[in-house]
């Protein structure tokens, strides 16, 4: 009888253990965050519930789905991954108001609070970096939520002052002059396809390009134009020296944004580090799409203690 008693006790213990929450269990979900001005933002979370937290923020006209190569990798290797669509973008609600960086920073703050993200590493692409800088500037009391930043291919000043010298514009990798910004906004429908194509190397497949372009078109040209004007005329140089968490700046040698000015951002952040993808590494504006293995490895090495 003793062996049967021991077996019964073992089975009881096994059953009890199965009822305890498994902190290593992977859980994927899609949900909505409601901003303070009543807009619903679509987000996804995947990976182990107790995994190290990482948040991906897309760029102008881009969507959370465009991070899928990173979401799949990091969630499968033990990270708790969050990605979201900004207002007007992707699967989020598309109001006719709020298309300014300060409002998008407030939206990010709402997301961090409602999902209770703490000790999170933010990986922000392009305009997503500007949103992160605006958030850091606007919400100093919430800064302790952030563990690390990875800023991907964003100039600290996107539009050159007409009074600057050529050297001053090059220092920050200013992409536009003022007229160029308004020309883009005024002719958004025609200019979006070639502008998006310029963000990739020639090796991108036509199928991939068409898919990315279709994601870009989920925000209306009207709202995208309003947003790009506000985005293009922001100057973040006074924010950078006040960032006190470990930060990595990623640039691309063949990006539409000149790499030296992107790397310069890292020199303005205390302890900032930088990495530039070479042409051989497909260092375009979308290096994370064109060379995900290298991108994921660099980010993982930086954010993992």
From TrEMBL:
Pfam families: Abhydrolase_1
Presence of keyword Repressor: no
Keyword Hydrolase: yes
Superkingdom of source: Eukaryota
Residues making up the signal peptide according to the UniProt record: 1-16
One annotated GO molecular function: hydrolase activity
SUPFAM superfamilies given in the database record: alpha/beta-Hydrolases
GO CC term (a single one): membrane
Domain AB hydrolase-1: residue ranges: 54-215
Record's keyword terms, sorted: Hydrolase, Signal
Protein's name in the database: AB hydrolase-1 domain-containing protein
Species of provenance: Cylindrodendrum hubeiense
Lineage: Eukaryota, Fungi, Dikarya, Ascomycota, Pezizomycotina
């Amino acid at each position: 009888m003793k062996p049967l008693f021991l077996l019964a006790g073992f089975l009881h213990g096994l059953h009890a253990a199965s009822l305890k929450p498994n902190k290593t269990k992977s859980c994927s979900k899609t949900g909505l965050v409601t901003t303070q001005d009543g807009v619903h933002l679509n987000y996804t979370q995947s990976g182990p519930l107790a995994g190290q937290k990482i948040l991906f923020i897309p760029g102008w006209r881009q969507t959370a789905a465009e991070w899928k190569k990173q979401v799949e990798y990091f969630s499968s290797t033990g990270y708790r991954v969050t990605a979201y669509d900004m207002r007007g973008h992707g699967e989020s609600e598309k109001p006719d108001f709020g298309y300014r960086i300060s409002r998008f920073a407030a939206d990010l703050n709402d997301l961090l609070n409602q999902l209770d993200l703490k000790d999170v590493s933010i990986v922000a692409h392009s305009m997503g970096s500007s949103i992160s800088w605006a958030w850091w500037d606007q919400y100093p009391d919430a800064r302790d939520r952030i563990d690390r930043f990875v800023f991907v291919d964003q100039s600290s000043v996107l539009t050159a002052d007409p009074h600057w010298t050529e050297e001053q514009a090059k220092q920050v990798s200013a992409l536009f002059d003022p007229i160029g910004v308004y020309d883009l906004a005024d002719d958004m429908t025609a200019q979006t396809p070639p502008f998006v194509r310029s963000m990739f190397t020639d090796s991108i497949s036509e199928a991939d390009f068409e898919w990315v372009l279709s994601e870009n078109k989920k925000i209306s040209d009207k709202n995208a134009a309003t947003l790009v004007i506000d985005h293009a005329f922001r100057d973040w140089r006074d924010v950078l020296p006040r960032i006190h968490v470990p930060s990595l700046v990623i640039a691309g040698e063949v990006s539409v944004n000149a790499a030296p000015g992107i790397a310069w951002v890292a020199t303005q952040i205390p302890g900032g580090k930088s990495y530039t993808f070479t042409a051989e590494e497909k260092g375009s504006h979308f290096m994370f799409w064109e060379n995900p293995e290298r991108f994921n490895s660099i980010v993982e090495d930086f954010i993992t203690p």
